[in-house]
Amino acid sequence: MKDFGSVKFKICLGKDICVVLNMSTEDKVIVSKIRERYSGFFLNKVTRHSFSTTLNLDFTPATDNFKDDNKVLVDFEGNLLKLSRKDFFLAINTRTREGNGRAAASIYSIDSLLRVVFSWLAVEKKGFFLHCAGVVSGKNAFIFTGKSGSGKSTIAKKFPRKRILSDELVLLKVKKDKIFAYSTPFWGELEKGTGENLEKVIKKVFFLKKSNKLAVKKANLEETIEKLMPNILFFVNSKEISGKILEIITIMSEKIEFNSLLFPKNIKTGQLCI
Amino acid sequence: MYIKQEKNIAWRVIEGKAYLVNTKTSYLHSLDEVGTSAWRHISGGTEFEKLLDKLAGEFEVKRTILHKDITEFIEELETKGLIEVCGG
What we know:
Chain A is built from five helices and 16 strands. Chain A is α+β, with helices and mostly antiparallel strands and 274 residues long. Chain A is globular and about 60 Å long. Chain B is 44% helix and 30% strand. In chain B, a hairpin with a 4-residue loop joins β3 and β4.
């Protein structure tokens, strides 16, 4: 019988949403890739505010012909949340938040698995992941969201990489009486971000639309809900979670300004007034 | 005709307007003032005639117009998979 090594990483967004990965593996390559991709989000100390799930993970050999767009299947059996895709399977006890499963020894599989688990955890902590570009300005963040092709990466590319929370997925969360944006290790076109775990107060959210002319218009609550919902990432689509997301949007709309931003491709960063 | 909500619908009334999420399709639907009131009555299950009675008491509109509008509304909700209609 092989004596597998045990490796443990605690990956956190901000300080209070964490996934603890307990892995039994001899595969040094995957361990090194996990360390390389998520090290900026490793947290050693467990704080009392920390809201985490522990996943005991075994690895299976990675498959070459896997398509990343395969759908995640979600199933509830009492308190057991089952998440499966061709390259991973997880069963999480939603009360203890402890899970067991297996995943292909591929960084793409681990990344997808983490997106799914974090998106479920976020809603429990009054937050969600938004498909958007997040730009830092001092202590604040500005969020640019829209469907694919709306210009999120176009906007992100106009700023130095160190000012970008992500060009694909940012965690938005209600905390006390403020709305915060958190950097994530989940990036799109820009591939790799600052790798820093950042927490910033959201100043404004913009719904992007490409246009010939620059125009900014304040969005009302109805527009905010209708434009925000399609861009929120949530795999665990239950009545409870969808209801919570509607409530979180309502709280956010009371605290921060949502705007429609029509912008030309050659917009200068100064014109964004951030 | 008995009308009830589909099981997989998450909804909240925000600033007087109902927002419905069909968790099977992930589509978001929003309702106007009359639709929101009708939806509240449908939420626990209702007979069509009882629904008309309740709405007639809330909104000043001719019964014939209300009947036509609510019939179309119910058809639309059913098409979108938001309600179940039994015994048409």
